[in-house]
Design goal:
120 residues, six-stranded antiparallel beta sheet, two-stranded antiparallel ribbon, 2 helices, 8 strands, 16% helix
Length: 120
């Protein structure tokens, strides 16, 4: 009897931005995006205010970078979240690590800074 070994799919990391619409501590809705674009935010009535993101509905909005780790065979096996905060001058920034301990790639901080510059 012979067996054929099927190679396991290799894990890969993908990233997406998420706008979490919140009412207090409850997350009401996720709006996932491949990139940050001012027009995307305008379409959903989100506005950059310099210290936070505010919605026309009065709800709070969290801007989050999400890291998905997985493969085509097994799907998403791990997910990390990096919540955008604002420094003392009101500039948005990402943490150095996702909540799962993986590094946040520097290119996303640059993308966030460009987005903030275009929305001031």
């Amino acid at each position: 009897m012979s067996y054929t070994t099927v190679p396991m799919a290799r894990d890969r990391k993908t990233y997406e931005w998420d706008l979490e619409a919140c009412d207090g501590a409850e997350i009401l809705e996720h709006d996932f995006r491949d990139a940050l674009k001012a027009t995307d935010l305008d379409d959903h009535l989100f506005q950059y205010t310099g210290k936070s993101l505010a919605s026309a509905t009065g709800r709070t909005t969290n801007l989050v970078l999400v890291q998905n780790i997985g493969n085509d065979d097994e799907g998403i096996k791990d997910r990390g979240w990096a919540y955008v905060t604002f420094d003392d001058s009101g500039r948005p920034k990402l943490p150095e690590l996702f909540d799962n301990g993986h590094n946040v790639p520097k290119r996303f901080q640059k993308q966030l800074e460009r987005w903030a510059d275009n929305n001031e």
